[in-house]
Every structure is written in C-alpha cells, then in structure tokens.
C-alpha cells in the first residue's frame, strides 16, 4: 500500500532472455502487491525494452482497484497497451465464477501468445 520494495527470495529471471512476459500479482488496496514493486524496479528497463505488446498482466482482487494497477503498470513500463490484461475476482472464494474465469483465462492466453 505504501509503495514498499521488499527484498525478494532468490528467483530466476534473465533480462533479455524472453520474447514475452506475463506479470501476475494480487491487488492490495488498489495497489500492486509490494513484491511486484521490487520486481519492476529491478527489471523495469528490460521490460520497457521488450515493449507492452509483449507483456501480459494478470491481476487478482477481492474488491476493486485492478484498473488503477493496470494503469500504473502502463505508466511504469511506458506503454499504452499490453498484449493481454486479465482481472480475476477472488476465484478461490467465488467458485460460481469458475466457468467465466476459465473462459477469460483461455482468451488471455490466446492474446498473449499472438
């Protein structure tokens, strides 16, 4: 919520190695989760070079705010659009949305892989 950038556990991501990237995180109080702030700070230059048309974003929220997070990603990565954008509404607590979510995930994957 405060824009913190916590230290991340070791992970593997080599800048310049990927043709397409999907960024996924939960939305907390209309903000991206703090670990994503760290990831974007560490790899933002490479992601901007890759270009928004090669980046998909997947956000999961219980309430709302995902659109604000998507707009912030666009600003941070200096792009007007992404290959795909998907927002899931608390899929663990709303199993009645499963078929709708499955269809949305399939469409998102197709968009991101084009």
User: Unreliable stretches, pLDDT < 50, 5 or more residues?
Assistant: none
Average pLDDT number: 90
Q: Helix count?
A: 3
SSE run: EEHEHEH
Measured between the Cα atoms of the first and last residue, the distance is: 34 Å
Q: Give the amount of beta strand, in percent.
A: 15-25%
- How many E strands? 4
- Summarize the biggest pleated sheet: 4 strands, mixed
By secondary-structure content and strand pairing, the structural class works out as: alpha/beta
Q: What topology, given as strand order, has the largest sheet?
A: 2-1-3-4
Rg from Cα: 14 Å
What overall geometry do the principal axes of the alpha carbons give?
A: globular
Please estimate the helix content. 25-40%
Structural descriptors:
114 residues; 4-stranded mixed beta sheet; 20% strand; alpha/beta; 4 strands
Would you write up a description of this structure?
This protein is α/β, with parallel strands linked by helices. It is 39% helix and 20% strand. The protein is built from three helices and four strands, in the order ββαβαβα. It has a four-stranded mixed β-sheet with strand order 2-1-3-4. Strand 3, helix 2 (66-76) and strand 4 (84-89) form a beta-alpha-beta unit. The longest helix is centred in the middle third of the chain and has 17 residues, at 34-50. The chain is globular, with a radius of gyration of 14 Å.
């Amino acid at each position: 919520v405060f824009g913190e950038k916590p230290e991340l556990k070791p992970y593997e991501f080599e800048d310049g190695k990927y043709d397409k990237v999907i960024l996924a995180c939960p939305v907390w109080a209309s903000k991206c989760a703090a670990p994503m702030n760290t990831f974007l700070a560490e790899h933002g230059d490479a992601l901007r070079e890759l270009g928004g048309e090669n980046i998909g974003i997947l956000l999961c929220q219980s309430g709302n705010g995902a659109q604000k997070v998507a707009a912030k990603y666009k600003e941070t990565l200096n792009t007007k659009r992404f290959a795909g954008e998907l927002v899931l509404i608390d899929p663990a607590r709303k199993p009645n949305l499963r078929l709708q979510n499955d269809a949305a995930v399939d469409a998102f994957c197709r968009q991101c892989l084009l």
